[in-house]
Amino acid sequence: MTTRPQVQDELCIENVSASALADAYGTPVFVYSAAAITEAYESFTRAFAGHPTQVCYAVKANSNLGVLSLLARLGAGFDIVSGGELERVLMAGGQPDRIVFSGVGKQVWEIERALQVGIHCFNIESPQEIELIQSVAARLDRPAPVSFRVNPDVDAGTHPYISTGLRENKFGIAIADAPALYASAASLSHLRIIGVDCHIGSQITQLAPFLDAAERILMLVDTLAADGINLQHIDLGGGIGVRYQNEEPVDLDAYAGALLQLMGHRTQTLVFEPGRFIVANAGTLLTRVLSLKSNGDKHFAIVDAGMNDLIRPALYSAWQSITNTVSREGGEIRDYDIVGPICETGDFLGKQRALNLATGDLLAVASAGAYGFTMSSNYNSRCRAAEVMVMNDQHQCVRQRESIADLVRLESLFTLKTE
Ligand code: LLP
Fold first, then answer.
1. Is 343 annotated as catalytic?
2. Are 50 and 260 in contact, with CB atoms under 8 Å apart?
3. Is 85 in the pocket of ligand 1 (CB under 6 A)?
């Protein structure tokens, strides 16, 4: 007689069990906790409560309308990088005057739309963009509120693909060039200079790079003030790291304390653009074990989520916790590579994970709320996963699983006559 391993306890997201969610929505599925998003957002605003502050959530981290509408309700502003993100924020009920528009390649249609709806600010990334925004704003006769994204040349010590504040990166203008650019922009008819911004990288777990950058930016703010250019806000970007494994993330209260000390008597509103911090650990990717196989002493668990659903492990060698949603007695703990169904060796979610697995088990990939779904694709003609929001014991589908019809909706057969 075989004894089935006994289920002891089960992972819950808020008060809903993972298996109930998998039964209701299928797998793979991204599940977000409304309470975790709310707590992350509010811990940010609480830390900086002693100073006028606007948190502009970086939409790229997770742009689901459910997530955006929750944050809009909490009073968040938004950091966008495209016309598509702008429309999402508006659809989600975000206030236009709390939107900052970042990005190195803004196009005319995007600038027009942002001016028409009345965003808070464009974060200008290059001298050419000064001309572009001035010309669009002049044509529409709507002054454009602008800030310059300055590159403070600090090393944030992150993965090279996500570090942005070094001179060698494509982002922003060199801090040494900033006073002259501000002066020339100030002479243009349709630009209204209101701020300065920087963003030095992502998943930063040390306080020092943030404070280094802030110090340099504040020196610039003072130089500009001496030149008669008085700014209303100082945007220090996003980049606050979270715990994926055993990182010790920046303590926000310590950050706020040190930063407000640096601010001294300065009264400019502080703007932040956190993405990952708000949503990463509020999200879980649930995936089912399709089969187990071993090549000698190498063990694989093939699951129904792949690199098309979560590309961070393949792209950045990112480590995210993977657990079985049930714990059991019996069975054997083995070191598994958790791999997807995609025809690529890079298609893995985690390697060498000590787990007690059986076919059909439901696994939870943690910290999947940021840069998970937003970076997913249809590679191998796989339908993108569903997304679900949980609140207490309730749950709501905030994006349906794609269908095969969705996959080909915009395509057609080739019908031109061949010779
Ligand atoms: N502001 C700007 C101008 C940015 O470029 C970014 C992220 C953020 C804010 C938000 O950064 P966060 O607070 O989320 O670190 N796909 C990578 C991360 C790329 C981040 C790009 N820029 C990942 O999965 O790790």
1. yes
2. yes
3. no
Is residue 251 located within the same domain as residue 306?
no
Last residue of a domain, one of 222, 251, 276: 276
Q: Are residues 293 and 360 in the same domain?
A: yes
pTM higher than 0.85: yes
**Cα–Cα distances in Å, from 392 out to 106, 134, 190, 321?**
40, 48, 49, 23
Q: At which of 276, 299, 328 does a domain end?
A: 276
Q: Ligand 1 centre from 239 Cα, in Å?
A: 6
State the number of CA atoms in the 13 A half-sphere of 43 facing the CB.
17
My answer on whether 372 and 392 are in the same domain is yes
| pLDDT given for residue 347 in this prediction | 97
Could you report the per-residue pLDDT of 91-107, keeping only the tens digit for each?
999 999 999 999 999 99
At 332, which CATH number? 2.40.37.10
Mean pLDDT to the nearest integer, 296-307: 97
Do 198 and 68 lie in a common domain?
A: yes
Per-residue pLDDT tens over the stretch 65-80: 999 999 999 999 999 9
267 found inside a domain: yes
Q: Is 288 in the pocket of ligand 1 (CB under 6 A)?
A: no
For ligand 1, is residue 123 a contact (CB within 6 Å)? no
Q: How many domains does the chain have?
A: 2
Range of the domain at 293: 12-31+280-408
**333 and 242: one domain?**
no
Give the CA radius of gyration of the chain. 24
Same domain, 60 and 171: yes
> What is the rounded distance in angstroms from the CA atom of residue 26 to the CA atom of residue 175?
50
Say if residues 154 and 209 touch (Cβ distance below 8 Å). yes
Which residue out of 12, 343, 383, 397 is catalytically annotated? 343
CA of 146 to the centre of ligand 1 (A): 21
Q: How far is the CA of 289 from the centre of ligand 1 (A)?
A: 31
Asked whether 252 lines ligand 1 (CB < 6 A), one says no
**Residue 382, number of CB atoms within 10 A of its CB:** 21
